[in-house]
Amino acid sequence: MKIVTFNQVNSILNQYLAEVRNINIQGDSLRFRRNIERIGEIMAYEISRDLPYHPIEIQTPLAKTCENVPAVQPVLATILRAGLPLHQGFLNYFDHAENAFVSAYRKYIDIEHFDIHIEYIASPRLDNKILIITDPMLATGGSMELAYKALLTKGEPSHIHIVSVLASQQAIEYLQKTLPDAKTTIWCGAIDPELNEHSYIVPGLGDAGDLCFGEKE
């Protein structure tokens, strides 16, 4: 399984990653959402380099020419609600893509224990398509696994790109065991070393959904 970690190389993405982590900046929800969106745009560009391409003939005002363009458009999927700004960053670049949405949430048993529930899915057929699933935080990897399994009810994709702003090392190791190795690529802004007792990524950035859209009751 290929794993790409963006903050291991110098890129403007690291500026946006620093800002979404920074407690003195992230309180501006508009800026936080836009930074997540910009991270998505950069990641979308990098993933676009892995797509199959073919030449098409173009008529300009002066002559004909050829350009290589994507031979297929991916399906963009996200996990509601926190994934929406990251999804929008991808949609800004893959503007002809089909879209899929899955809801996944933690249902707490007590203050430290929870189950993950899937309650909603809207997706096109996925057979033999390239699937990109975005979720800004991969904490345990459980939500991503369940979202992927829910999407499989719509068909078997040819390749799966898992995209997150931050992932824990535990989530990476979990997904390596549970997702198909030969046709999965994981793209992360950064991989953080641990989870706390509430399964939040440390150092992480807090609750991405709340920072994007306000605290939930």
Characterise this structure:
α1 runs antiparallel to α2 (29-48) and α2 (29-48) crosses α3 (84-93). The chain starts with a strand and ends with a helix. 37% of the residues are buried. The chain has 217 residues and is an alpha/beta fold. The model has no long low-confidence stretch (mean pLDDT 93). Helix content is 30%, strand content 34%. It is globular and about 65 Å long. It contains six helices and twelve strands. The strands form three sheets. Strands 1, 4, 5, 6, 7, 8, 9 and 10 form an eight-stranded mixed beta sheet that branches. It has helices spanning 13-21, 29-48, 84-93, 142-151, 169-178, 208-213, and strands spanning 2-5, 53-59, 64-70, 75-80, 98-108, 114-122, 130-134, 137-138, 159-168, 184-192, 194-195, 201-202.
From the N-terminal CA to the C-terminal CA, the straight-line distance is 38 Å
- Percent range for helical residues? 25-40%
Shape: globular
Characterize the quaternary organization of these chains: single chain
Unreliable parts: none
Order of helices and strands: EHHEEEHEEEEHEHEEEH
**Percentage of residues in strands:** 25-35%
Rg measurement, Å: 18 Å
Structural class assignment: alpha/beta
Mean pLDDT: 93
